[in-house]
């Protein structure tokens, strides 16, 4: 190798220096020996935080049984919503326990979201978007997955209603959805190719293309029925109340069931979605391009508010006995076995020599370090002062093997950094915040992190 030839990669002399410095510190050798054998999560867990963790709260809503389990699926947004609805439903109908059918909403979300994808793809094809451009690549990256947003739930429940889980149970593909999604994603990409060809090569008009899309949707509907079952147009619900008295609701449609038995205690139209996005001005209304699950349905709207406002409104709702649906980045500073969400639970600096909290919330969003990944339910608070909680109780949907039989503890500091969205009943929200919903929303691009599906 000649004197002037550039050596690729890191200089070997520099690597030798790195190695000498690393092995010259006994703390590094201990950390290496322990972590290579036992892994990270348990090794750098702060023992003092573990001992201080308590599942005791001043205020708790009347929680419901049984604890739910989404199993190997990404349906947390559905589970969290239905867990919120069942709390007043159980209270009003005097039940011991109850679940709504998560699989029922899952079915209709898949069908509607596939149809929405076909309509969107026709639109972007008519705009002559490049197939290898950023928008097309984003839309094709995962055409239909399990996650969702609050306004998508409003679309589904208002159109299709609700069913008790006893009347439409889980299927293998709802409990473990990966293969089901793989088939749908293949089919949608094939349909996208056909739609783009019809638009650009044959110049098909709206009527011709709609006929083709109807044929595509017939195939997709069949896939959903095969994998999840065919949803009933009516059902009969038989149950015992707390007094062990037999009750029956006979031959009722899912839509009527929602209107007559659910809406009086939980009206989807009364719930307002608030977000905390420090990249953008507060007091503004936002949406994300192509973030929806239903053509011509309610669009996803984000009312951007400071975190202190969000916390105060969430606290108010809980003290009034109402659970709060929320979206967060659950994987950060989380001890699953203990059910603990705490910024201080892992001592990264003792092991690696640097903090994992050097980026603030805004920077984490901008640089791809954080976004919404999971939806759960706030059901309790411990107060530090009148409007300043010290910790929050969280109902998860991963079964009863973590935390306190499925419930988590979230510190208030963790809430500030990794909660992005809450849903509050409008009766708790001041008029000046409600009027923001009258604004024309600012449209964020389809790939914006606030378009992440919980």
TrEMBL record:
Q: Which CDD domains match?
A: Peptidase_C1B
The record ties this protein, via PROSITE patterns, to: THIOL_PROTEASE_CYS (PS00139)
Name where it mostly resides: cytoplasm
Q: Which UniProt keywords apply?
A: Cytoplasm, Hydrolase, Protease, Thiol protease
Gene3D superfamilies reported for this sequence: Cysteine proteinases (3.90.70.10)
Q: Quote the EC number.
A: 3.4.22.40
Q: Which GO terms describe its molecular function?
A: aminopeptidase activity; cysteine-type aminopeptidase activity; cysteine-type endopeptidase activity; cysteine-type peptidase activity
**Top enzyme class:** hydrolase
Segments forming a coiled coil: none
GO process annotations (BP): homocysteine catabolic process; proteolysis; response to toxic substance
Superkingdom of the source species: Eukaryota
The record's annotation in InterPro entries points to: Papain-like_cys_pep_sf, Pept_cys_AS, Peptidase_C1B
Q: What Pfam families does the annotation carry?
A: Peptidase_C1_2
Q: Where in the cell is it found?
A: Cytoplasm
Q: Which residues form the active site?
A: 76, 374, 396
Q: Which GO terms describe its cellular component?
A: cytoplasm
Which reactions fall under this protein's catalytic activity? Inactivates bleomycin B2 (a cytotoxic glycometallopeptide) by hydrolysis of a carboxyamide bond of beta-aminoalanine, but also shows general aminopeptidase activity. The specificity varies somewhat with source, but amino acid arylamides of Met, Leu and Ala are preferred
* Family stated for the protein in its record: Belongs to the peptidase C1 family.
Name under which the protein is recorded: Bleomycin hydrolase
